Automatic annotation (TrEMBL):
It comes from the Eukaryota. InterPro entries: Aminotrans_V_dom, PyrdxlP-dep_Trfase, PyrdxlP-dep_Trfase_major. Residues 52-343 form the Aminotransferase class V domain. Gene3D superfamilies: Type I PLP-dependent aspartate aminotransferase-like (Major domain). This is Pyridoxal phosphate-dependent transferase major region subdomain 1. Signal peptide: none annotated.
Amino acid sequence: MLGHEIRRHFSFANGYRNLNHGSFGASPTAIREKANELRDECEANPCPFIKYRFTQLLDESRLAMSEFLGVPQPTIVFVPNATTGVNTVLRNIVWNSDGKDEILQLDVIYGACGKTISYICEATHQLARTRKIGFSYPVENDEIISGFQRAIQASQREGFRPRIAIFDTISSNTGLRLPFCQSAGVLSLIDGAHGIGQIELNLSTLDPDFFVSNCHKWLFTPRGCAVFYVPERSQDMMRSTLPTSHGFKSRPAGRSPSKNNGDSYGKSDFVLKFEFVGTTDNISFLTVPQAIKWREEGCGGEKHIREYCTQLSRNGGRRVAEILKTRVLDNTANTLSDCCMVNILLPIQRPTDGDGGLVKNDEGLEVTITEWMQQKMVKQYQTFMPVFSFQGSWWVRLSGQVYLDDSDFEWAGWTLKSLCEKLAE
């Protein structure tokens, strides 16, 4: 049975309500214990483990993940987090020297990824430029897809080259499930940071050029672990990992790209690049099979988890909105909320920027409303709920998860009401 009965498998402090699973995830003790067992094994035999045992277990994780996502094992590797995957893609693309290449992005792109694009544009001396696609939310899925198509057409009409489009499975602070579309001649990169373990994903059907998703958020592996999927057609573009490591093979000047030759064990050059990237603690990569198994045996499997958490966030979000006398951020088809996170409008009548958006905290220091609310949550209520400004209003994002039930959202509603009333005093 899902709900508070499952909470005992996690390590939350007594009284702490984790209504913000989306930011950093949480891993069951059984999976973290497996990771610690592997760390102990590594310390007992460091060289044999790192050189041989790690790669064997990594292959098992890659196989488990490939079956989970419905794609061939040679298309799957792991990186520390989704932002690393996005960086790997963008830093490996060779931009044309005429300065006409464009990166298409939504206005709700994750902040670090948006800054990565800004860095790429700066570092290449504007060989690449960005084109932002904005909407007034809520918006229907077909309008989002049309917006991408219009942006591609506008780019081409203005003499630019739409090179790559970045999509989110579920946006970050706004917690909105978004659609994916492809266009001929434009590379597609899906930032699925909140995807795996939260929504159904079959990458052989989606068929993006690149996909990355955090396993430590909704799949329950320890931090940090993210799957990085690159179909064979796109693998030669990924020349190097971040940082460049032993798997890199230099390409002689003037020589055309060669086929992934691989090694005697049948692994491609692409897989070998990502197999050993320095001595970072990547033990979490090895826990994917245990995480998938735990979810199946302990929680009833992916379909059951998705249905429970999505329904919990939807019902809970509506109840919080009732308490606050506001509304949930969703479209008429309810596709934006078809996930395990929900956004509720806060009854805060204060500016979202400028001096009017500052308030004094308990120490007498001026802080943003976001910080004031979140500091109060931590100190007085033993919880954390992301508060953010969006389209001129204040919102909160809540997460539905297997260890929560309706009573947690009821509590969240009254807690938020109390905080908003204190802020208005």
